[in-house]
Design a protein that fits this description.
The complex is a heterodimer of chains A (326) and B (345). Chain A is an alpha/beta fold and 326 residues long. In chain A, 38% of the residues lie in helices and 22% in strands. In chain A, the strands form 3 sheets. A 7-stranded mixed β-sheet of chain A has the order 3-2-4-5-7-6-12, with helices on both faces. Chain A has a 5-stranded mixed β-sheet with strand order 9-11-10-13-14, sandwiched between helices. In chain A, strands 1-8 form a two-stranded antiparallel sheet. In chain A, helix 3 packs parallel to helix 4. In chain B, helix 4 packs across helix 12. Classes of the chains: A alpha/beta (326), B alpha/beta (345). At the A-B interface, helix 3, helix 4 and helix 5 of A face helix 5 and helix 6 of B.
């Protein structure tokens, strides 16, 4: 039975359920489980729920070492940029150890962090840095776009035997949606068609999925049928589903909150150019952030980020673009 | 110094320790010789542990059954003591299919979890956090294990060192940090880059920043290392938290083989003390305090090791390592298409 819950609650539910299911799962990070009244501490004790100093390199490195030796740590990082001070551990330790050992060890860790906080957090707390992670073989990257996915992808992340970066979006924390009860695991690398359509394919990640769905709704009123595809994990990336959708619609808009040349969108556009070019009736359009840092003041911030209007314009653009004739 | 420096160690154990020290030395000599005898067989960067034998063996001789060793990329010595096949180790360094990691890791990334050696990082200092994480596993799962974390003096200036020791102290993790001070971080002498060294202090003073015991020990004396590490291990196993042990010895080889651009073959250069700093006397003095020779002398003078026994041990180790080299040379290369294996579990 699905139950309405907030995105934030769905993530917490998955962590709690996985910790109940598997005593090897531990949870730690800065500013959490600070008192005995903390619900996680009450449920699982201070051995498995721990508070850490502000030491990202050690937090992540310790999680990696713990994972190598039999635990399944979930590290709460709060903001994805905090990983930047420990990027060696993220990009050059976690995904390398299994490979370098010739498959002798595994590193089942989850690095959980929020990203893209478009609420006046300015230059250093609102960025989209996942492109740095998705190109590193050995790392998986999940980006839930709704409450149900927040739960299902977290459960999958914790059960995965590889390092997983789980990126949640702060602007969606309070969004409610139906979430299946009990064991709910969304396999990685399986895109979800969030809305079926026939004229244009919109591939969007994270927060941009809800923006794209809103754009699709507005366009439907004008008789334009938009299919919205959410890859859900950008590594592994389900190109198959995207190409199949393009086969059907012949037109592709890729929406990504990241800056243009550091976006998942650029990767998707490249893959479609190689594997689905023959199906395209118009050039692919990318809707991304402008190539700037994120400014503080609200009108400036709004100006640089993708939004519903920019998506609508892009969809109209690919429809009006000169047809190559199918 | 204890009155009886051999302590509670029996004859058999002392000879075992001596044997392991010699095996490390012979292994490293054979790796080094490979650069001359079989140019091109060893690729990339290789770092040797000659000079560290007493420190490595003295520390690991205090191990109990399931305790783990987690060192840096200068990692050949430890698995030899832990029982890893030297044939597989050599084959790994030669990039062969029968290598410990099937040719995926090489010299800097030996791993043998089945022998309590979960793996290493090639990036200075980073594995200090991994070892600390292994200690977290031991604590959470109440396994009774102690983790032996080895790293060089250079690594003790990395942020990860400070962060990890702080967390280990806060959580009272069952780990012993063994700072191997061999005086040179890569190519730079410690007096140029370490605040404690500049001030003329011991490096174990860094422990005070984390309110944990810090001890400096003569790392060329296997029995002194055994005693100091043994105390720290006992403390860690009793749940009283980590210690930092500075083990002082001298690296006999250069930091690594020379970095050359293929097809120029690489060789081991002279030690930095000679090559860079022109300190021939410093190097000669360090070589005169060879930990293996010192221990051999001690065992001989106490009647623990007879000359024929010593000869027999030396011969058998020479044979063992000759076989390892031949095994590695004869082992095939991995099939190229294997390269995509092991990306994901």
């Amino acid at each position: 039975m699905p139950r309405e819950m907030m995105y934030a609650e769905a993530m917490a539910t998955a962590i709690t359920e996985e910790m109940k299911r598997d005593s090897d799962v531990i949870f730690y990070g800065q500013n959490l489980g600070m008192t005995d009244r903390d619900p996680m501490v009450r449920m699982f004790g201070k051995n498995r729920v721990r508070i850490t100093p502000i030491s990202e390199t050690a937090e992540l490195g310790i999680a990696i070492g713990a994972a190598m030796t039999g635990l399944r740590p979930v590290v709460e990082l709060w903001m994805s940029e905090f990983m930047l001070v420990a990027m060696g551990q993220v990009l050059n330790e976690a995904p390398r150890l299994r490979y370098m050992s010739g498959g002798q060890v595994k590193v089942p860790v989850v690095f959980k962090a929020g990203y893209g906080f478009a609420a006046g957090w300015a230059g250093q707390h609102s960025n989209c840095i996942y492109h740095t992670m998705m190109g590193v073989p050995g790392l998986k990257v999940a980006m839930p776009s709704c409450a149900a996915d927040a739960k299902g992808l977290m459960a999958a992340a914790i059960r995965d035997d590889n390092p997983v970066i789980y990126l949640h979006h702060y602007m969606q924390m309070l969004d409610k949606g139906p979430v299946p009860d009990g064991d709910y695991v969304i396999p990685f690398g399986v895109a979800d068609v969030k809305r079926a359509g026939s004229d244009v394919t919109v591939v969007a990640t994270g927060w941009m999925v809800s923006k794209s769905l809103a754009a699709a709704e507005a366009l439907a009123e004008k008789g334009i049928s938009v299919e919205v595809v959410d890859p859900r994990t950008i590594e592994p990336l389900d190109i198959e589903t995207i190409v199949n959708s393009v086969k059907k619609t012949g037109r592709l808009v890729v929406v990504d909150q990241a800056t243009r040349h550091a976006s998942v969108g650029a990767i998707i556009a490249g893959e479609v150019a190689e594997r689905g070019f023959q199906h395209l009736k118009a050039p692919v359009k990318m809707v991304t952030a402008l190539d700037t840092s994120i400014p503080y003041s609200e009108p400036l911030e709004k100006y640089v980020l993708p939004n519903e209007e920019k998506i609508i314009d892009a969809v109209k653009g690919v429809l009006n673009s000169m047809s190559r004739g199918a | 110094m204890p009155k009886k420096p051999t302590g509670k160690l029996g004859k058999e154990r002392l000879i075992w320790m001596y044997t392991q020290m010699l095996r490390i030395r012979e292994f490293e000599e054979r790796v080094k010789r490979t650069f001359v005898e079989h140019p091109g067989v060893i690729r990339g960067h290789t770092h040797l542990a000659d000079g560290a034998e007493a420190s490595i063996v003295g520390a690991l001789a205090t191990r109990q059954k399931d305790d783990l060793a987690m060192p840096s990329y200068r990692c050949h010595g430890y698995p030899i003591v832990l029982g890893t096949s030297v044939k597989k180790m050599m084959a790994e360094i030669y990039g062969r299919k029968d290598g410990l990691c099937q040719g995926f890791g090489g010299s800097m990334h030996l791993a043998d979890p089945a022998h309590h050696f979960p793996g290493t990082s090639g990036i200075i200092g980073q594995a200090i956090a991994h070892a600390t994480g292994a200690a977290l596993t031991a604590q959470v799962k109440k396994t009774g294990q102690v983790i032996y974390c080895f790293f060089g003096d250079g690594a003790s200036k990395q942020g990860v060192f400070f962060e990890s020791l702080n967390m280990a102290a806060v959580w009272k993790l069952p780990i012993v940090y063994i700072l191997e001070n061999n005086e040179y971080q890569a190519y730079t002498h410690i007096s140029l880059e370490d605040a404690n060294s500049v001030a003329g202090d011991r490096l174990s003073q860094k422990a005070e920043a984390f309110s944990m015991p810090g001890v400096t020990v003569e790392g060329t004396d296997v029995l002194k290392v055994y005693e100091a590490v043994g105390k720290a291990v006992k403390r860690a196993r009793a749940g009283q938290g980590p210690c930092l042990i500075e083990s002082k010895f001298y690296r006999f080889s250069a930091h690594g083989n020379a970095i050359t651009i293929p097809p120029v073959p690489t060789q081991f250069p002279k030690h930095e003390a000679i090559e860079t700093y022109g300190k021939k006397k410093e190097y000669a003095a360090a070589r005169a305090k060879d930990p293996i020779q010192m221990f051999r002398k001690k065992l001989r003078s106490r009647g623990i090791l007879s000359e024929p026994d010593a000869k027999r041990i030396e011969d058998s180790i020479r044979t063992e390592l000759e076989e390892a080299v031949q095994f590695a040379l004869a082992s095939p290369f991995p099939a190229p298409e294997e390269a995509t294996k092991y990306v994901f579990a």
